[in-house]
Design brief:
Length: 944
């Protein structure tokens, strides 16, 4: 599918349970004439387009429009005016290969490459590289775009690459242009992944012999091509390719060869050098069949042979493996490689190997430690030159001039790579370390000077909710202050004093700030204060607005406002829990009680406030629900309702497009649905299924849309609200009782339990200007399984976004590093479980995990040593599987690839501890070096 082999990345994920790496601090020399490094706060990631389906490549137009291609064949365009993305065309493509078992499997193929003609403004030509829907070939075709549509009659097939579809992988598809109008195209090796390098010379095994593909001078696969497209749809061969036109047994289109999976490609407009990412083989250790695998970020100063399938990294050699005898043979000479394979149709004697630029394995790299360790898929990216942009709106800072901005798909980082004057590697550093793109598949600068990053998302071969195009804007000028306005009392009986506060307000530029508070209210003269935190007396009933304006030294200002009600004391609401006050545990009851007191109205305890006047709700919400919106929404919604969470969910959904509470719209009203179904057995489950899957025929001809992306837990909350919508009072839960949380079917159990109580007092009698006051308290009990990357404090450990679906984030700690979670209640907690592992292939060495209270040196309540885990030889297991499948009896099903054995979690017993504490996880190993990670993990589970 992509130049990154997605299928070959899957076994990587199995081999690398948690696979992101440290970014170590490395001192860099700073010269007086070097421009300063910009602070990360000057960069703002902005989501341009989302809801994409396997996005592959994009191009940005001068007006800010963006063309995006998707693997299944869609060509889409983002409109910056309407901020919407529309479908331009669907290209028929192949996305499958046929396995040895005769099964159709995803093959990475599809719509793989896209570029715009350098003269697009005049000719409106685009080039698409795709897998033919029925024939075994990849095609580069040119179309004209007119009136936002592809002109089918304009199609010109420029070049074809013959392929095989017996086995996956590696397709290429990266394209770029040089100043002379020459087009470069990366082409994957299209060879089966087997052992280390693929050199199977047995009859009928040509698809597993890369000597006939990447190492073949007469084959376009495993190459970077350079051609000059002509106006009539053909192409000519420019000067300077690897073999002159007319050389026997060669293809003149080849600029460089010996590639396994070259991916995104860029030309340095200043030097003419070529840069690309190269995805390497999967071996995690050196063995008799070859060296461990390396990904490469490569540079070509001229045409050359980059060595695959006989060499990887810094000319580390693979022996030609004799599959007939199951033995490794001799290694090639990198200075004089000879291709003697029977599948080779090209020259036998090849050019000496060209030097590789940057290369890194699964484990830590001593030479390039910043790239980290773990799963890897080098992407590539652009070289930044300010001169490449004509009057850009937001050029990136001079600090990045001449640097290669390169990404890694799996590790989720973006690096700025600095070259010496002669082009040699000099150094690298992270760009925006706090931005974690989820599998960046394409990265380039747009005409405005902004950097764009296309995030493929976490699901392979299917649509991901986190697929998106992000624009990273640089602000080189003055930044507005960030304003935070607060008050210690939102109201009270008059007279009362309230203290206003601007605490938390900041200015990233470090400018001196001026504070201006303005208090306004009907019938009262405005009051102004020019201090940060003034104290204000309200002696007249009414509704007031306190506005804070903060201005920096350069005149940039920002504001925030608060509402204060004078003349009515807000009620006090408290939610009391017995037991743990941080976590819920499925199936275990949560005893609760509610207290309400109001200065004017009385209290629950004295009976002047009735229980049915207090809105009590307890809801299980799915992972990711923003419970803060419940509190915010109740300022304008009926606070007496039990269904605050449901109202927030409905407000964010498309429910109101077709349904109204009491009147028929496109669909039935909530009241009609309640009257039809309320009280019937199994109705909740039936309606939840209908919300998720859609339906038709019950209420008329209009079909109900499916909502497969809506979490089951959220659908259940909405359905329960609808079924109770005819209850005039929407009666609350008891003010004292027990709630036993249950996890809805198909929910991952990582949501939260929201226990909320709200009370609205009576408005002040005889004064319509004094409104009622609402107070509420909400306690959020979280899942007992925490993501390590959500730690409030991290020091000395590296957090990285995991592109692999379902794994989220991982943490890789080093000696004496620690992370901490604030305000965690350990009441009733007996032990913790971490999915921690120390793997040699990650470069990890193991160590001790200490659990401490309130500081890294606080009370020790538990500890556990994590030893280095034994390696599993997946290559050996795969080889054994292959041999077993060769000897299958007629009708016997082939054996499937083995899964890596599941490792038991690291269990840490905890001393009995009551109350909330800051919980510190401290990692120690006195024998580890500064660049050696101790282990990796992503989850922490609290066990009662």
């Amino acid at each position: 599918m992509t130049n990154l082999s997605l299928l070959s990345a899957f076994p990587r994920a199995l081999k690398s349970f948690l696979c992101f790496s440290p970014v170590l601090f490395i001192a860099a020399f700073t010269f007086q004439d070097s421009p300063p490094k910009p602070d990360e706060s000057r960069f703002t990631p902005i989501v341009v387009a989302d809801n994409l389906d396997e996005p592959m490549v994009f191009e940005v137009l001068k007006d800010g429009s963006v063309y995006i291609i998707e693997r299944k064949g869609a060509l889409k365009k983002y409109n910056p005016v309407t901020k919407s993305t529309s479908l331009i065309a669907n290209i028929p493509v192949n996305t499958k290969y046929t396995s040895a078992e005769g099964l159709a499997r995803e093959a990475e193929e599809g719509l793989m490459g896209f570029t715009m003609d350098p003269n697009y403004d005049k000719n409106h030509w685009i080039y698409l590289y795709y897998a033919h829907p029925t024939e075994k070939k990849h095609i580069l075709s040119r179309w004209e775009i007119k009136d936002e549509q592809l002109v089918e009659s304009s199609k010109k097939d420029v070049i074809e690459v013959e392929t095989q579809r017996e086995v996956c992988c590696h397709t290429g598809g990266g394209m770029t242009w040089d100043k002379a109008g020459n087009l470069y195209l990366t082409v994957g090796n299209n060879t089966g992944n087997q052992r280390a390098a693929q050199t199977d010379e047995r009859p009928g095994r040509a698809s597993w012999d890369d000597q006939g593909h990447a190492g073949n001078t007469n084959d376009l696969r495993g190459k970077i091509l350079k051609i000059h497209p002509e106006p009539n749809g053909t192409y000519t061969i420019p000067e300077g390719n690897l073999y002159p036109k007319g050389t026997a047994k060669t293809r003149p289109e080849i600029y460089s060869m010996g590639h396994r999976n070259p991916w995104r490609i860029a030309v340095d407009s200043k030097t003419g050098y070529l840069y690309w990412g190269e995805v390497g083989p999967d071996a995690s250790e050196d063995s008799e069949i070859g060296p461990r695998g390396y990904d490469e970020l490569n540079q070509a100063r001229k045409p050359g042979n980059f060595g695959w399938p006989w060499f990887v990294g810094d000319n580390q050699a693979f022996p030609v493996f004799d599959y007939a005898t199951n033995k490794p043979l001799a290694k090639k000479d990198p200075n004089h490689p000879v291709n003697e394979s029977p599948n080779n149709t090209g020259l036998k004697e090849l050019f000496p190997n060209a030097p590789n630029f940057i290369y890194y394995p699964y484990g830590i790299s001593e030479k390039f430690p910043l790239v980290g360790s773990g799963s890897r898929s080098a992407t590539g990216g652009p070289i930044y030159h300010r001169a490449d942009f004509k009057a850009p709106t937001r050029p990136w800072p001079a600090y990045y001039e001449n640097k290669w901005i390169a990404a890694d798909f799996s590790r989720g980082w973006i690096m700025a790579i600095t070259m010496a004057e002669n082009g040699d590697y000099q150094s690298m550093e992270r760009v925006m370390p706090n931005y974690h793109p989820v599998q960046p598949i394409d990265i380039k600068f747009g005409p405005s000077g902004d950097l764009y990053v296309l995030e493929y998302g976490s699901n392979w071969f299917r649509k991901s909710e986190n697929s998106r195009l992000v624009r990273i804007e640089y602000n080189g000028g003055n930044r507005k202050p960030i304003v935070v306005a607060a008050i210690d009392k939102k109201g009270g009986t008059v007279p009362f004093k309230a203290k206003l506060s601007a605490a938390g307000t900041k200015d990233f530029d470090g400018d001196a700030l001026k504070y201006s508070w303005k208090i306004t209210g009907a019938g009262s003269a405005p009051k102004t204060f020019n201090t940060e935190s003034p104290e204000v007396t309200f002696d007249k009933p009414g509704v007031y607005t306190a506005s804070l304006t903060v201005t920096d030294a350069k005149g940039a200002s920002n504001s925030q406002a608060l509402k204060i009600v004078a003349g009515n004391e807000p009620p006090k609401v408290a939610v009391n829990l017995d037991g743990n006050k941080t976590f819920f545990f499925a199936g275990k009851p949560i005893p609760y009680s509610i207290d309400v007191t109001d200065k004017e109205d009385g209290s629950l305890a004295d009976g002047k406030i009735k229980a049915d006047q207090v809105a009590v709700s307890i809801d299980y919400t799915s992972e990711g629900f923003d419970y803060a919106e419940v509190i915010q929404s109740q300022r304008s919604v009926d606070a007496s309702t039990q269904f605050a969470v449901a109202q927030v969910l409905i407000g964010k959904s498309d429910c109101k497009v077709c349904h109204q509470p009491n009147t028929k719209s496109v669909g039935p009203s909530f009241a009609d649905i309640s009257n039809k179904y309320k009280g019937k057995p199994g109705v909740t489950e039936m309606l939840v299924k209908k919300v998720l899957e859609g339906g038709s025929g019950v209420w008329g001809e209009v079909a109900m849309a499916a909502h497969p992306a809506l979490p089951v837990a959220d659908a259940e909350v909405i359905v329960k609200y609808i079924l109770n919508s005819t209850d005039k009072t929407l009666a609350t839960l008891p003010v004292k009782g027990e709630y036993t949380p249950t996890i809805p079917a198909k929910d991952n159990g990582k949501g939260s339990v929201l226990i909320r109580a709200a009370f609205t007092d009576r408005a002040v009698s005889g004064n319509k200007a004094i409104p009622a006051q609402t107070s509420e308290e909400m306690i959020v009990l979280r899942s007992p399984e925490l993501n390590a990357a959500e730690a409030n404090i991290v020091k000395g450990a590296e957090l990285k976004a995991l592109g692999t679906a379902g794994l989220g984030f991982s943490v890789m700690p080093f000696a004496n590093s620690f992370l901490a979670f604030n305000e965690i209640d350990l009441s009733g907690i007996e032990k913790l479980e971490l999915n921690a592992v120390a793997q040699n292939r990650e470069g990890a060495v193991g160590g001790t995990i200490e659990i401490r209270l309130d500081s890294p040196t606080g009370t020790l309540v538990g500890e556990q040593k994590v030893e280095l885990a034994p390696e599993v030889d997946m290559q050996k297991l795969m080889a054994e599987l292959e041999n077993q499948n060769k000897n299958l009896k007629p009708g016997e099903a082939p054996k499937t690839p083995p899964r890596r054995p599941t490792r038991a979690p690291v269990s840490i017993s905890i001393q009995p501890t009551k109350g909330k504490h800051d919980i510190y996880f401290v990692f120690k190993n006195a024998g580890a070096t500064a660049i050696q990670p101790l282990l990796t993990f992503s989850k922490i589970k609290f066990i009662q």
